[in-house]
Amino acid sequence: MRIAMKLLSACMLFWLVGGAYAAGMALNKVEVSVDLPALERGADTVIDTCTVCHSLKYIRFRDLAGLGFAKDKVQAWRGDSPMGSVIASKMTVDSALLAFGAVPPDLSLIAKAREGGENYVYSFLLGFYAAPDGMMTNHYFPGTKMPDALGIAGVTDAAQRALLEQKARDVTSFLVWAADPHAQERQTLGYYVIGYLLLLTTLLYFLKRRIWARLNTIQQNQHKE
Ligand code: HEC
User: Fold this and answer.
1) pLDDT at 23
2) Separation of 100 CA from ligand 1 center, angstroms?
3) Contact (CB, 8 A) for 28 and 123
4) How much distance in Å is there from the Cα of 24 to the middle of ligand 1?
5) Residues with CB under 6 A from ligand 1
6) How far apart are CA 93 and CA 103, in angstroms?
7) Are residues 75 and 120 in the same domain?
8) Does one domain contain both 109 and 207?
9) Ligand 1 atom with the shortest distance to the CA of 150
10) Is 12 among the domain residues?
11) Which domain holds residue 192?
């Protein structure tokens, strides 16, 4: 009975929270990619377009090389900046504030910093539209000061839309990588650790058998005496 009550209240809570969430516009779900080509397309857009206004202050060009992008690609991205420098914004905070009335946030951790994570970033990028009064706004951030960077608001046909969705997905994938650049290394390390533990377990098992075999013989000999 008590379990049934608990289940019931859990369901009620879920329903309430779910209802509150549905009051805003539901986020579009995105399957982010970890493929190098997708991440490279994403990095291209982020560095060409987004860094006009945004920085990625926790990502260095060296990290991009470490991820496996070609040397000349990284070279083209960084221009004259050294490998060790971070991805800076081409705009100062003051001029951004003057131009937009808001500071473009650093994008290194944005995929983790916003509620909804990657789904929010993806939905936000594709959420721009012109309101009836002609002002640009966003379904997921009404009245945002950011311009429609990918140009989704002007799109009329499905093919063009599909292209921009792909672009937003690549950008989001790159930003998800940026928010946790060592996720893949950790996973690989995890496999090594598991392999090592399995090997150790096997060795210990055989060691245990040898020790007990010897103890058993000693015991048997004692019985005989
Ligand atoms: C022309 C300048 C400009 C460009 C280009 C630009 N942004 Fe922004 N962005 C802004 C400004 C300004 C804000 C702050 C908006 C606000 O607070 O109203 C912002 C905010 C954001 C936010 C945070 C929204 C939130 O919930 O607070 C994200 C995510 C974002 N930008 C992603 C991007 C990505 C990805 C690109 C490249 C595809 C990009 N931006 C290109 C100016 C720009």
Assistant:
1) 46
2) 10
3) yes
4) 20
5) 45, 49-50, 52-54, 96, 100, 102, 104-105, 107, 110, 114, 121, 124-125, 141, 144-147, 149-150, 171
6) 6
7) yes
8) no
9) 38
10) no
11) 188-219
- Give the gyration radius of the chain's Cα atoms: 27
Ligand 1 mutation target, pool 47, 51, 53, 95, most atoms within 8 A of CB: 53
Is residue 49 within 8 A of residue 83, CB to CB? The reply is no
* Dist. CA 105 → ligand 1 center (Å): 7
Q: Is 58 helix (H, G, I), strand (E, B) or coil?
A: strand
Ligand 1 atom closest to Cα of residue 46? 37
Q: Using alpha carbons, select from 142, 50, 53 the residue that is nearest to residue 102.
A: 53
Residues 148 and 211 in one domain: no
> CA 145, 148, 154, 158 torsion: positive or negative?
negative
User: 50 C-alpha vs ligand 1 centroid, how far in Å?
Assistant: 7
Is the pTM higher than 0.85? The answer reads no
Q: How many CB atoms lie within 10 A of CB 63?
A: 20
Q: Mind listing the pLDDT tens digit of every residue in the chain (225 residues)?
A: 566 656 556 555 555 444 444 446 899 999 999 999 999 999 999 999 999 999 999 999 999 999 999 999 999 999 999 999 999 999 999 999 999 999 999 999 999 999 999 999 999 999 999 999 999 999 999 999 999 999 999 999 999 999 999 999 999 999 999 999 988 888 889 999 999 999 999 999 999 999 999 898 888 888 877
Q: What is the number of structural domains in the chain?
A: 2
